[in-house]
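Collaborator request, handled under Task 6.
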Amino acid sequence: MRFFCKDVEIGQSSGYSFHLYYGPRKNGDEHTPPHLHAYYNGRKGKFCICNSYKGKIGDMFDGTMKPQEQAFVKTWILQNKSKLNRRWRSQNFTRLDSTFNSNLNDIQKLVNAIQTTKAKLRRLHLKLILKRRELDSYSY
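Structure tokens returned to the collaborator:
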């Protein structure tokens, strides 16, 4: 007898794809802990959709996604957590409505702006350190 986990895409946003799997595993165990699979640019990750022994809501516990991508997925999960948990418990894996897509695009833009600002601040800090060293090297 064969067991299969069925893959259902429950949402998409900004090139990200979110999937839930249901059905018994090969050994008959439940598919736990509650999590979703996220895919982006050939990378993937498994993310907690509720607090569990694998981590907190939105934490990646397995995968290859970059920190910026993980932040985007975590935001999406937090905005949809009640719907995700209801679907996990009921095993009714239907697509989530896309009302959050525009908000997530705005959040992605903010994340990018914050990272750009952090990089600028690092460069400015380095310039200030170098300038201070230069001033300290002068003897009066």
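The cover message to the collaborator said: "The radius of gyration is 21 Å. Strands lie at 6-13, 16-22, 35-40, 43-48, 60-63. Please let us know whether this matches your experimental observations."
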